[in-house]
Amino acid sequence: MQLLSEIVRNVIVIIIIASFLELLLPQGTLQPLVRFAIGLFILIAVLNPVMGFLLQDVNHTIECWNFQADMHEQEEIMQQGKKLNEQILKSNQQLLQEKVEGQIGAVAMLVPGIEEVETMVSINDQGGMEKIEMIILPESADPPLVDGKVGVLGLNYQSLSAEEKKKVEAKVRRVVKDLYGFKDEQIKIEFKGG
C-alpha cells in the first residue's frame, strides 16, 4: 500500500508542476517538448518505486568506480600510453614533413628556369621547421632531332651560368622566405647537373 501511495503522490506532484508550466509557457514550439519531458518524469515516477520494490534484495554495485590497478599494472599502462603517443606524434611529424616538402617543391618549380626540385625539410620535436635543403634541376634543353628521331638517350642539362644560378637561387629563397617564414641561414640550395 505504501508503494501505491508513493506512486500516486509523485504523479500528482508532476501533474501540478506540468500544469504550471503549461500556463507559464506560451503556445508554440516549446509546448510539445515540455509535454514529452513531463511524460518522461511520469514514467520515472512510476517505475522508480516499482523497481525499488521488485529489486530490494539485489545489491547493484558498480565495480568500475572502485577499480584500482596495482602499481606494476599502472606503470605498464602508462608505458603503453607513452608509446602510443610517440607513434602518433611521429606519424604526424612525418606527414607534416612530407606535405611541407611537397608544397615547397611545388612552389619552387614555379620559378622560371627550374625543371625539378628535390626538397628535404628538417622538423624538430615540437613540429617546428628548422631548415630546408633544396636540390634544383635546371630546365633541360631539347636534344636536337635528326630525321624526326632523338639522337642521344638521357638528359641534356642546360648549363646555367653562375649569374643565372644566383638569380634563380635568389628568387627561390625569396619565395620560400615570404611564404614559409624561413631565414636565409635555414635555406640551403644546390644545383644538380648544370
Q: What would you say about this model in short?
A:
This protein has 194 residues and is α+β, with helices and mostly antiparallel strands. The protein contains 4 helices and 5 strands.
Can you offer a commentary on this structure?
A hairpin with a 2-residue loop joins β3 and β4. The longest helix is centred in the middle third of the chain and has 38 residues. The chain is 54% helix and 15% strand. The relative contact order is 0.08. The chain is elongated. The chain is built from four helices and five strands. By secondary structure, the protein is α+β, with helices and mostly antiparallel strands. About 4% of the residues have low confidence. The strands form two sheets. The chain has a three-stranded mixed sheet. The termini are far apart.
> CATH fold name of the largest domain, please?
Alpha-Beta Plaits
Query: Rough shape?
Result: elongated
Named CATH architecture of the largest domain: 2-Layer Sandwich
Mean pLDDT equals 80
CATH class of the largest domain: Alpha Beta
Q: State the oligomer.
A: single chain
DSSP summary: helix tally = 4
Broad structural category: alpha+beta
How many distinct folded domains?
A: 2
**H/E topology pattern:** HHHEEEEHE
Topology:
Blueprint: H1 2-24, H2 30-54, H3 71-108, E1 114-123, E2 129-138, E3 145-146, E4 149-150, H4 162-180, E5 187-191
Parallel strand pairs: 2-5
Antiparallel strand pairs: 1-2, 3-4
